[in-house]
């Protein structure tokens, strides 16, 4: 694998991030410790160094498995990302949310489970719509200054909140958020309305979760295979089916898997993107790793973009109009031909 810089930093991470939400067998699904070790070994042997987890994944088991694995590895080789926000115990009213008290408690618990002295990338997991963003950024900066965290990021949060946060960080000299984790795939392109343009502006790397649409873009549901997606999911509607068929057609042309095409698409959209590839089976990871050898042509991208196009809404669609001419002297607008 090639390595990329994460956001506006000097941190080098592999071009595919390994998602570990499935490490552990709680909740009736996932993979055990031995199989998780096998997956991480294969990922590392392929040059992968970027692991993504969270305090809540499998009730903390995901972090514990990673911690046990890292105990017998070169810790400094790996870039470990974890998150806080979601409730991971019932001890007190502040055991969830974005507040500083929960942040500090969560970090200490994660460090214990990961058996490490520091977290490479620390995300706010999901916006609680309560805590002031300056409280979050100040707390994160304190963790960086304490050496418990190296870099910070944010996940599943409105673009205006992230923009306010990074503007404050720049003004106050706090550590900026360098990574933005969001759902993004060929069947979930709504982040293109606000989140992705914002990330580009601040030089943030986007780390898409569910880049395969929960497995829908692999074509397995078209083949009648069972999965964890609810039948009423938007990932299984007529639009998603049409997009998946377009992916399969290009995959057949290239002689690769549909998953390879869907993953590669997220990395060729004109912004910094490192997709998170989850795996509960070694075979799943092995197929995902083949993505690094795939290149989509301009024609492939055109077909996929057209099949999955969304309405950007206002003002996105308004900005697509190919030049609203302004005569500053006459004070009138002359709308000209749209791009289509």
TrEMBL record:
| A matching Pfam family | Aldo_ket_red
User: Is Cytoplasm set as a keyword in this record?
Assistant: no
Q: What are the protein's UniProt keywords?
A: Oxidoreductase
SUPFAM superfamilies (alphabetical): NAD(P)-linked oxidoreductase (SSF51430)
Question: What range(s) does the NADP-dependent oxidoreductase domain occupy?
Answer: 15-307
The record's annotation in InterPro entries points to:
AKR_Detox_Biosynth (IPR050523), NAD(P)_OxRdtase_dom_sf (IPR036812), NADP_OxRdtase_dom (IPR023210)
- Does this UniProt record's set of keywords contain Transmembrane helix? no
- Known CDD domains for this protein? AKR_AKR9A_9B
- Give the classification, highest ranks: Bacteria, Pseudomonadati, Bacteroidota, Sphingobacteriia, Sphingobacteriales
PANTHER family in the cross-refs: NAD(P)-LINKED OXIDOREDUCTASE SUPERFAMILY PROTEIN, NADH-SPECIFIC METHYLGLYOXAL REDUCTASE-RELATED
Q: Which GO terms describe its molecular function?
A: oxidoreductase activity
Instruction: Give me the Gene Ontology terms describing cellular component.
Output: cytosol
Protein name listed in UniProt = Aldo/keto reductase
